[in-house]
UniProtKB/TrEMBL annotation, chains A, B:
Region named Disordered: 35-69
InterPro entries membership: RCC_reductase
Protein name per the record: Red chlorophyll catabolite reductase
Domain of life: Eukaryota
Pfam families in the record: RCC_reductase
One Gene Ontology biological process: chlorophyll catabolic process
Record organism: Brachypodium distachyon
Bias type Low complexity, positions: 35-48
MF terms (GO), sorted A to Z: red chlorophyll catabolite reductase activity
Cellular component, GO annotation: chloroplast
Amino acid sequence: MLRPDHYFRSPPATAPAPRSVSVLAVRTLSHLRPGTLPLPRAAPPLRGKTSNTVRASAPAAREADSARMPALAHREVAQDLSAEVEARLGTRLLPSAVPVDVAEFRNGTGSAVGSLDVRRGAPGSSIDFMLQSSLHCKVPTGAIDITSILIFLNASTDAPHFLLELIQGSPTLMVVVLDLFPRKDLALHPEYIEKYYENTQLDKQRESIEELPQTRPYRSPSLFVRSAFSPTAILVTIDCGQGGEDVLEDIVRGRLASVAKGVLQTWLNSCADQALEMEEGERDSMLRRDRIVRLKSIEVDLTANLPRMFDPDVSSRVIAEIRKAFGVE
Amino acid sequence: MLRPDHYFRSPPATAPAPRSVSVLAVRTLSHLRPGTLPLPRAAPPLRGKTSNTVRASAPAAREADSARMPALAHREVAQDLSAEVEARLGTRLLPSAVPVDVAEFRNGTGSAVGSLDVRRGAPGSSIDFMLQSSLHCKVPTGAIDITSILIFLNASTDAPHFLLELIQGSPTLMVVVLDLFPRKDLALHPEYIEKYYENTQLDKQRESIEELPQTRPYRSPSLFVRSAFSPTAILVTIDCGQGGEDVLEDIVRGRLASVAKGVLQTWLNSCADQALEMEEGERDSMLRRDRIVRLKSIEVDLTANLPRMFDPDVSSRVIAEIRKAFGVE
């Protein structure tokens, strides 16, 4: 069965031969993905003004980045979502303050390029941070492209986080991970399921993707990752087979774009503003869970994989910045 | 997509037309299944001596039961598993004390027949109860047959429960639900995942079933049910298509039997004896979770569905007995 992780079963072009070949794309709780969304020059900016200013100070890096990070339909979809978030959340998102050498980075031989943007939530808002990233990495069989948007909420609410990850292993094959990421033990809290997943009819979005004949369920090899998602999570491989480049692009721009937008709307309408009275113990318990999920996902994803693609100093910088965003320095 | 729940989208032959047609087989946390495993007369007993004695007092009922509960390969598989459990747990299982009219029951028109057996764990053991049930119910398109084995542990351990449910919707189609059912919030307890699911390599059993071309993932329509299973749970539909009666039987007697035995062995070796020191708060939290899962599964399954198949007095008796076993009277 062809899956994107196969690309990483062969080591990336520039990585030293690993002792054990770990899997990148399938370790997908998924905050490893360095890289903001690659913009055509004419496209509207994805980040706030500060970000652009920061980036303007590194024109050479941006030039090289444009050259190497390919324009892909899935990145345009992510870009549209990002624009929607910024329009809706507005001043509740602070400008980015990610250092230039983390905002865009590459490995020494140029086989991998990435970018990362983190915007913290404004004081008093329910937003903890919004993280956008993009990664393009050459592998012996071609390249892998990963684009992520994570919007995590803080302790003023128990509402789920938003999580999107698109892992494109070839022009015909992609893994989609899209979820309103739960913050409570669902078996212990049926009312949480009802409030955020049943009443919002999120399962219809999942069904809408899964009814496509090109999709099959995607199962992370990490049991922890599998355990962390909601019961309506979209976890699928879209495999359009040989010659299916146009089919994949149509699905991405059509059904996938529509479903991702639908899930985001649900999150914006039902989660992003849900400040909530909670008992102290309940809040502590939620924060403890949040912290373990964040730590574990960084351990599973980043520390295992990023150093295989980027030089140690680069991966350390990127990991440090993501740790900072996650509040688990 | 043909699924067993379709059989119940039409009301059972004898049930009053329901206002809302609820789904039986897919509401599968699944303790609704009245009925012990139907035994050919020559087969070794499934229950302890007391059970047989109880049953011997109702020869007429047994006669009718034998006539109506068809012998099926999946029931033989369950019977073998049950025999293995009884051999291994031995005196840790008390004899059954289920009343005769719950041990075997039927509806007034004879379109549905079921049986239930519950054996409590002996004092000082880690076993809470072992529940075996079988149900045969005629529906307009044929019949549905459900066989279950649940072995729940008590608060002396946090080890997972054992849960098997086989829902046969036709001679060519079956849903398999097989899990070591977790008792902790897995996202909060990665060490629990490691201990009971990773180190035991349970995922290989799941893969062994899912690699069959006749299987596809089974997804319960209940989001709560989906949330309650472990990440290595086997939740599949085996669909052998028109004319595939022999294929299904071969799979059931071959791969399914082997996998179910493997999972049971893991449970017997790694869970059934795992008495564990726990802090009081930890134990309380686990018991609270256990209780909600039990209550919710009874609500989802039994109270919604059993009265649709059996006369009210019968379903009430059966539900009461299961509530007693579950400790949620």
